[in-house]
Amino acid sequence: MNKKHGNLIAASIGILLGSGLSILLAKKIKENNADKILEIVKNTLSEQGKVSNAWIKGQRIGGDEYDAASVYNGGAKITNEKGEEKSISFVADADTGEIFSVDILN
Fold first, then answer.
1. Closest CA to 65 of 74, 73, 56, 57
2. pTM score of the predicted model
């Protein structure tokens, strides 16, 4: 094997490793983004009362229905000042945390 082939192999390995790390990093950033969006949603919902048992699906889905690139689905329980609880589901923008839809489940 000559020097030219060795350099080509080394460069190919470097590109493959770099691509793999980029994919893993992008996935981790999206996962962290769901947590950040959930915090934004919880802060917004806290205007209605105490927010508990909040959750968000970590997978983005298409947001064409809401004129957004992608959205997250989630839910929470809200207890108002009178102690009344309601369970809700929500749809929020995956980039900004803007709440597009809130549905009361009970």
1. 73
2. 0.68
Q: Closest by alpha carbon to 58, among 87, 89, 27, 88?
A: 27
Would you say 69 and 63 are in contact if contact means Cβ atoms under 8 Å apart?
A: yes
pLDDT class of 37 with cuts at 50, 70, 90: very high
Predicted confidence at residue 23, as pLDDT, reads 64
Calculate mean pLDDT across residues 26-31: 52
Which residue in 75, 84, 73, 68 sits closest to 45, CA to CA? 75
Q: What is the mean pLDDT of the chain?
A: 83
Number of H helices, E strands in the chain: 1, 5
79 CB-near residues (< 8 Å, 6+ apart): 49, 50, 52, 85
Structure tokens at 66: 């809401």
**Based on C-alpha coordinates, what's the Rg of the chain?**
21
